[in-house]
């Protein structure tokens, strides 16, 4: 019973179904490999991840469905300006180099599980720790919800609507939460490894096919020059500032996503971490850049699409390649598997991270006497509760609220001074970090919310993201309060 | 090189990846607009720079070896 608009036939859908169900088997192997019933084993795979698994889980987690679908759509709309996305992901790796070595050593010595464990260790301020945890939770929740929605749309596209949106979201969420609660980080990392390999092969294959079939950059240039010559115009000064501001979001925001920080904690040794991050430095070139080229190819092939239609740029190119006979069902299955893999690997990691933050940063403060086994059990229950609630919201949330869920990095970036300054400036106090975080968050959120609700306030005043303005305010407050603190101390002396 | 210096080098390099120097007219270089080619090459060089920094300046702590 294949629908006319379905991207795959029954054979392709069956293969995809088997692949998705095989993730549960991997999750079961993760459970069998468990060494102890503790939070460290469940949430950080016993801090024993080797090079290949660590690299692949970092890769699969960092590159979400947004990379495969959203980035190509953005390249379609913005043209060559979307090349900023390549450096955006590289900037996150640049930030890892700054903070990961020291944070890793501290995490190993003091047994950190969540990013807020470090914040609490460094500043010993409950309000600051809970505030940082809350910002992390909000960013992760938004991340999960938007990715669940994306997965629902992909299921509808793949099956031509035979499987409705809600059923698709429920079924795939169920698979994710089952393998996640079976083996925790070990299961998630192992499934991420498989998903990372599929993702990489999918992206590289579609890029090469495009080069062979259409003629690469020459075809893109000539076609866009004919249909959209404005896309070649060099950037205005405000657009250049916006470019720099985007890099700022990557450096101070993407790099401190809690699931990324927890992968740093999970490395079996520092050498493994170093090598994994070194390989990650090249991934924006073979993933983001390739997907930007896919978006530009779609712009060259199908000019004039509106915003919503442009989000399907990747699928349009795939369909065109299929009609030309350049790719068969196998490649279509491969790419759709890669897209679903990219989304699932991001959602499962964010889910695990949320569960760890609620269990470790909130629940253990209320029930400090609970054993590790009990806490792990509670963590699993929390995972199910989060997933159930997320699925419900993904299905019923009205469109006006969805616009607010785009606020992720703007929140997370406000936590970065606690990590970057905390690691390298010994005298910095919790008070200044807390006030900076509070005002930075208030500014970023109020600006973004007002903009999303239609108030005449730009989301990027002078081309700079509200979150980056928030970070500037955040840092300015930290600096001023530290100066006041310093002069008070000098007076006392 | 300590972490603060790495942070500064990284940000100087990131700043240079922005196509600041291109205004008004776009020329075709290697089938790309000149500023697009600049941004792409700068992104690749930034990735290489990161890999070199990691190789040369990330020293594994003594406890690890």
Write a concise keyword list for the protein shown above.
heterodimer; A: 493 residues; mainly alpha; 22 helices; 79% helix; B: 65 residues; two-stranded antiparallel sheet; 2 helices; elongated
Largest interface, chains and sizes: A-B, 44 and 43 residues
How confident is the prediction overall: mean pLDDT of chain B?
Answer: 89
What's the alpha carbon Rg of chain B, rounded to whole Å? 16 Å
Relative helix content of chain A: over 70%
Mind describing the biggest β-sheet of chain B?
2 strands, antiparallel
By DSSP, the count of extended strands of chain B is 2
Number of strands of chain A: 0
Residue runs with pLDDT of under 50 for 5 or more positions of chain B: none
**Mean pLDDT over all positions of chain A:** 90
Q: What multimeric state do the chains show?
A: heterodimer
Strand order of the largest sheet of chain B: 1-2
Q: Over the alpha carbons, how many angstroms does the gyration radius of chain A reach?
A: 23 Å
> Structural class given helices, strands, pairing of chain A?
mainly alpha
Structural class of chain B: mainly alpha
Helix count of chain B? 2
């Amino acid at each position: 019973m294949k629908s006319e608009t379905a991207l795959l036939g029954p054979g392709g859908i069956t293969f995809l179904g088997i692949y998705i169900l095989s993730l549960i088997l991997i999750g079961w192997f993760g459970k069998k490999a468990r060494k102890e019933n503790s939070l460290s084993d469940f949430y950080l795979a016993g801090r024993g991840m080797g090079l290949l698994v660590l690299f692949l889980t970092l890769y699969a987690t960092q590159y979400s469905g947004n990379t495969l679908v959203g980035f190509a759509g953005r390249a379609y709309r913005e043209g060559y300006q979307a090349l900023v996305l390549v450096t955006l992901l590289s900037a996150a790796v640049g930030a890892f180099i700054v903070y990961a070595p020291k944070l890793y050593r501290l995490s190993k010595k003091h047994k950190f599980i969540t990013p807020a464990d470090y914040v609490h260790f460094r500043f010993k301020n409950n309000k600051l720790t809970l505030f940082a945890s809350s910002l992390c939770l909000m960013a992760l929740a938004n991340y999960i919800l938007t990715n669940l929605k994306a997965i629902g749309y992909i299921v509808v596209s793949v099956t031509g609507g035979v499987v409705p949106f809600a059923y698709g979201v429920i079924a795939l969420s169920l698979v994710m939460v089952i393998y996640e609660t079976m083996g925790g980080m070990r299961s998630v990392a192992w499934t991420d490894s498989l998903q990372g390999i599929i993702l990489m092969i999918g992206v590289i294959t579609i890029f090469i096919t495009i080069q062979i079939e259409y003629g690469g950059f020459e075809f893109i240039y000539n076609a866009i020059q004919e249909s959209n010559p404005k896309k070649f115009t060099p950037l205005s000064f405000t657009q250049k500032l916006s470019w720099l501001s985007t890099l700022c979001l990557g450096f101070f925001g993407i790099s401190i996503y809690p699931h990324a920080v927890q992968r740093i904690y999970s490395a079996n040794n520092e050498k493994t971490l170093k090598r994994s991050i070194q390989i990650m430095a090249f991934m924006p070139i073979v993933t983001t850049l390739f997907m930007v080229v896919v978006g530009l190819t779609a712009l060259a092939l199908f000019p004039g699409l509106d915003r919503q239609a442009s989000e399907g740029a990747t699928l349009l190119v795939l369909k065109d390649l299929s009609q030309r006979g350049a790719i068969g069902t196998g490649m279509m299955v491969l790419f759709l598997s890669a897209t679903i893999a990219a989304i699932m690997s991001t959602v499962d990691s964010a889910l695990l991270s949320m569960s760890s933050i609620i269990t470790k940063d909130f629940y253990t403060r209320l029930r400090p006497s609970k054993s590790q086994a009990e806490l792990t059990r509670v963590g699993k229950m929390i995972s199910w509760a989060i997933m159930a609630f997320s699925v419900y919201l993904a299905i019923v949330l009205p469109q006006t609220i969805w616009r607010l869920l785009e606020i992720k990095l703007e929140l997370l970036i406000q936590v970065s001074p606690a990590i970057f300054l905390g690691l390298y400036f010994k005298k910095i106090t919790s008070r200044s970090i807390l006030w900076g975080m509070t005002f930075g968050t208030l500014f970023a959120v109020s600006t973004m919310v007002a903009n999303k609700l239609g108030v005449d306030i730009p989301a990027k005043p002078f081309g700079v993201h509200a979150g980056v303005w928030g970070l500037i305010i955040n840092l300015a407050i930290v600096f001023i309060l530290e100066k006041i603190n310093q002069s008070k101390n000098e007076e006392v002396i | 090189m300590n972490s603060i210096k790495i942070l500064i080098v990284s940000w100087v390099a990131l700043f240079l990846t922005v196509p600041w120097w291109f205004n008004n007219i776009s020329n075709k270089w290697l089938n790309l607009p000149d500023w697009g080619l600049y941004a792409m090459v700068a992104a690749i060089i930034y990735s290489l720079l990161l890999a070199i920094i990691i190789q040369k300046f990330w020293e594994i702590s003594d406890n690890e070896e």
